[in-house]
């Protein structure tokens, strides 16, 4: 097995820079997810690993070997695409076997090829479908064939470019579980690209969040959720995302409040901010609740809001409110009666779970906050 290292890698297309000065270390055997919006550079980074795009500047290594000038066929990687890319006229068995017979000079004996095919089919639950054609399979089964075709090569690194995007919601959930189990069995390095944060949060050992060609933060899923490095990460990770509103520090010290256009919010720690400092306040929906009207106290603080919609999701409710010029979402317990659309409410934030961000740099303020960095090695 091998890890993957980006050392100040840049990729340009003419005057357009798709990836800039990326430094990222993917540990041997790690499941790394490159997460970001469309056009952020994540697929370009993956294609540079595969050798499908040349590196403009910097060094890219697989294991201990710099691969900038190594052709794709000599990189010992396998890639799974969004589109499956199966041969429709060939059986599942022949599709899985195809990478093993592509190079006549290094072709494995028939017995070993058959053994690898049977092993991959068993791992992915395809044994009963080996004699069928791709057109006779469901979308989830075709995706598993594409995975099996990658597995038989026994590569050093698996590369996956949004492989679940064509599946419906139920199949995506099922295939996520299968990919995590596959990684546990193989313990091979996986680099997986997606714009879907649910995929990233549920599958990754670590997530590298990318925007505009720059790595914003690298960390374990819960770490980036609990400790977003900047406003982009805070607003991108989470469903619904973190609520944010501009304000001014009202007091200084270890505790105090932030005054916004819609009211005052108590903050457990002002993170060294001083009275009068401009900040962006952030709070996740699970830590924002409408105050009980029977306990309303005009002097208690909170955000004045108007209920615009209520999303019923079965296991929870999302209260969509207008707070000044912002839309803010509170996650409600479905067992409690919700307010009505059009009601005026006061939203209270859990002071211990309020974040403060610098409006000029967008970085999170607070003890232990570190500058976003991509050069982090996985534990163990």
Task: Explain the layout of strands and helices.
Elements: E1 4-13, E2 16-26, E3 31-35, H1 42-50, E4 57-62, E5 65-66, E6 77-80, H2 92-101, H3 110-123, H4 139-151, E7 157-161, H5 169-186, E8 189-194, H6 197-203, E9 206-211, E10 214-219, H7 221-226, H8 231-236, E11 243-249, E12 256-260, E13 263-267, E14 278-283, E15 288-290, E16 302-312, E17 317-323, E18 326-332, E19 344-349, E20 354-357, E21 364-365
Parallel strand pairs: 3-8, 3-9, 6-7, 7-8
Antiparallel strand pairs: 1-2, 1-4, 4-5, 9-10, 11-12, 11-14, 12-13, 13-16, 14-20, 15-19, 16-17, 16-19, 17-18, 20-21
Helix pairs in contact: 2-4, 3-4
Overview of this protein structure:
By secondary structure, this protein is α+β, with helices and mostly antiparallel strands. It folds into two domains: 4-232, P-loop containing nucleotide triphosphate hydrolases (Rossmann fold, 3-Layer(aba) Sandwich); 240-362, OB fold (Dihydrolipoamide Acetyltransferase, E2P) (Beta Barrel), CATH 2.40.50. It has eight helices and 21 strands. Strand 11 (243-249) and strand 12 (256-260) form a beta hairpin. The longest helix is centred in the middle third of the chain and has 18 residues, at 169-186. Mean pLDDT is 89; it is low at 367-380.
